[in-house]
From TrEMBL:
PANTHER family: DUF241 DOMAIN PROTEIN (PTHR33070:SF129), OS06G0725500 PROTEIN (PTHR33070)
Alphabetical GO biological process terms: root development; shoot system development
Organism encoding this protein: Sesamum radiatum
InterPro entries: BPS1_pln
Protein name: Uncharacterized protein
One matching Pfam family: BPS1
Lineage: Eukaryota, Viridiplantae, Streptophyta, Embryophyta, Tracheophyta
């Protein structure tokens, strides 16, 4: 049997192993952010704990945003056969955006309450200083 370059090329292509495609580096990063967010103590309300949770939520949000802007993801979104999956993904993303907005509002209100408390403490201190000075 004569071996020609074309025949060798065809044989080498048919014998290639089909390996599963590797996921994008953002996928394990997304999983890591999600695990860190879920692993946090849900009952802790210390400022450092809340700050850490918000930081993890922000990281997850940014990772999802990056995943949604990948060319492959955009291609999937353009295919009509994946409409249900796309709707579920976008609903989840909107839920994440809502959670971020709620967290932002919570932090803003907490900041306002802290500023009001500091103002009241200053007024009380000034009042006490005024009474002691008289």
């Amino acid at each position: 049997m004569i071996s020609t370059p074309l025949r060798s090329k065809i044989l080498s292509q048919t014998r290639s192993a089909s390996l599963p495609s590797r996921s994008h580096p953002l996928v394990p990063q997304f999983t890591d952010h999600l695990h860190r967010l879920r692993a946090g103590d849900a009952t802790s309300s210390s400022l450092s704990s809340i700050s850490k949770k918000l930081h993890n939520l922000d990281d997850l949000y940014n990772c999802v945003d990056d995943l949604l802007h990948l060319p492959h993801t955009q291609q999937v979104f353009t295919r009509e056969c994946h409409e249900k999956w796309v709707e579920e993904t976008l609903d989840g993303y909107l839920g994440l955006v809502d959670a971020c907005a709620t967290a932002k509002d919570f932090i803003f209100r907490a900041k306002e309450y802290l500023l009001d408390l500091l103002s009241a403490l200053r007024r009380r201190r000034d009042s006490d200083d005024h009474l002691c000075g008289s």
